Fold this protein.
Amino acid sequence: MKKLVFVASNILLAALALSPVASAQSNPATSLSKLIQIVRNATSPYQDVNVAAAAGYGPFLGCVSGSDHGAMGIHYVNPSLLNGTTVDPMHPQALIYEPSNGQMSLVGVEFIIDSATWLKSNTSPPVLEGQVFLFVDSPNRFNIPPFFELHVWAWRANPKGPFMDWNDNVTCAGQ
């Protein structure tokens, strides 16, 4: 009987390891680090905020800080990328900078997709390298229509995870 239970449990473990559930759980870790690397490669030139400005990015709403912890920083948005239909890891709609001692340090990016435009031809939220975008309804703190968003903290570690909105390692104190 013990041998039968042992064999059955091994068969079950093998089936689970080969199942789509196991693949979905193992692939995101690879995809997540891949997305961070793609974003770093794509945004490396924007370490210099002047290069970002020359590429069409400009400050939007000042420095965004959390009500009880962390911050996002200053979003530099490129309006030409806000078409609501394109999700391209090489072209984030916003670059995020932390102000400090008169300097701007690139800390991450935000992908922003207008939800109404996206949902005209899609039935689910955008996904980038396995990471599902969050839905932000209106009214919202930015006074803009509902949108999907994804933060990628590619240049500053986030203790809560690389895709969370607020980063406890970012501050607006240096502006």
Summary: Strands lie at 58-65, 71-77, 94-100, 103-114, 127-128, 131-132, 134-136, 147-152. Residues 1-30 have pLDDT under 50 and may be disordered.
